[in-house]
Amino acid sequence: MDNTIQVSDLTQGYGRTTVLRDINLTLTPGTILALIGPSGAGKTTLVATIMGMLKPRQGTVTVLNTAVPNRPLLARIGYMAQTDALYDSLTGAENLQFFGTMQGLRRAAMPERIKYAAGVVNLQPDLKKPVQDYSGGMKRRLSLAIALLADPAVLILDEPTVGIDPELRQQIWHELHALAASGKTILLTTHVMEDAEQADTIMMIRNGEAIAQGTPAQLTAQYHVATVEAAFLQAGRDQDAHRRND
Ligand SMILES: Nc1ncnc2c1ncn2[C@@H]1O[C@H](COP(=O)(O)OP(=O)(O)OP(=O)(O)O)[C@@H](O)[C@H]1O
Ligand SMILES: [Mg+2]
Question: What keywords is this UniProt entry annotated with (predicted)?
């Protein structure tokens, strides 16, 4: 089976600064990968590179067997940026309409898709409010709904659960698992360990390096610890020790 996302020996950076080194990542159809790592580790940089917003400095990235950057490919990816890019003066419904049109959704399909996407994030009661009156969490939810609108094969979500309460988080995870079961491929970043534990595989990035990668069970076994959080902390200490010895 072809891989949905393949990152090979990627090095990435801005100007003279190197942010990511030798990143390798493979994501098969129907699987969920969580990217975790401290603030500034390079998660968003990796996501932006996979989206083709940054050209790989070294190495290659393919999505759906297409090398990025590739503009037509974007129509097949549902993307939620870390910073909400919404029209504040428009209502939630108008934002969904606008982005749905941008994504090439047919007018006839629009009401059904908006109903579905808003439903996943419980936003129906607030769709008529202008986005400038939304809370932070409501904006995140609207951004997630927009990513889901066009039923894309690939979802790339940069911190989708920020500002989302536990009950809704559970509902969103239920939907993400259902989407994965139907063959969608999902890559998300998070600082929340409970979210990481829901993923099929976890990739830990620290100081621009992939310090550990595996299923939650593999990671806890590898570090002889009970939780993914403990595995992550231990992997970080190992990286520090390794760097001191270099
Ligand atoms: N546009 C940019 N120009 C220059 N440096 C940048 C740019 N964007 C990010 N960086 C730097 O790259 C590094 C990684 O940033 P990145 O946003 O990828 O981290 P992150 O893991 O997503 O962090 P967070 O968890 O806070 O979102 C940081 O040192 C950051 O300062
Ligand atoms: Mg980020």
Answer: ATP-binding, Nucleotide-binding
